[in-house]
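so my prof wants the structure for this chain in the tokens format not the other one, which i didnt know existed until like an hour ago. anyway here's the sequence
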Amino acid sequence: MLIARIIYPIQTLGPGKRLVIWTVGCKKHCKNCANPELWEQDIEKDIKVEHLAEKVNYILKNYDVDGITITGGDPVEQSGELIKLLKMIRDNAGDILVYSGYTNDEIKDVLTNDEYAEFTSYIDVLIDGAYIDELNDGVSPLIGSTNQKIRYFNQYISKKYIEYLAVDRKVQNIHTDAGIISVGIHNKNNRR
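here's what i got, hopefully its the right format
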């Protein structure tokens, strides 16, 4: 699976202290995307799903993690490996939120019925739809543009997400060997 980075704890891409995984590769190329450096597939970023799951499960078992967010790039563009990863981490994960630039209907068209059922059985929340810069209203702490939808596949988890949605947008700036990464849902005039 092509993975750019894994960072914990992140509090700006879902409720609580989250482990966030950024995938590599996205064909959408949305105008003013927050992560254009993750558009092109990079084979040097390949990691075996089993190894990734082992690392993620270690963190989940040894740290106070409230949930996992998987974003990108676009994780759905690696749907086979994504489903395999989700299956391997589901039991330890708390809640799982996946971002995709594809709409739920587009995801249904790409996956078989069985794959879609499996995918949605492993996740709690899907935020779907391409980012449209002109529709960034600067309001929601979870969606970048108002066309995007928050879909709950686990209704029991929706309360904590509704509470999270009541707060303002915020970003975390994380220092890495590669420089500073600004994590969160940005206002359209406040990028990097």
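also thought this was worth mentioning. The first helix runs from residue 49 to 62.
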